[in-house]
Design a protein that fits this description.
two-stranded antiparallel sheet, about 120 residues, about 15% strand, three-stranded antiparallel beta sheet, Herpes Virus-1, rod-shaped, alpha+beta, 2 helices, 2 domains
Length: about 120
Amino acid sequence: ITYKRINGTVVKIPWRKAVQDYVSYKLKDFGISEFDTLVINTKVLAQPLHIPTNEEIQHEEAERFVVPFLGDCALCMNPQDARDNNVAMMKCGHFYHKLCIVNWIARDLLCPLCEAVLEEQQNGT
């Protein structure tokens, strides 16, 4: 920062480097509260690192498709395998054998693990 005081003297104040922070100067601290000319030279440094907002983080988490470790079906207690076409994933994230969950849904029951309304997850959506 270069400035010219009213009395004609020219003063330079060096910029302080700050990675992602804005650097501010109180004019009175540097005795430049009264000046004739103030010149601030700037240049673009490297693009700043993008820090995601809470909304962006929540959106990413909502789109994330996580397949938990499969164990036994909570309805029939028999083993299940994620590669098996007879296993259905519900929107709540729980897995059941298709035959087991179809019968459960037909009785208008909620998820036995989290009590969510049961809907089958279709192709990661």
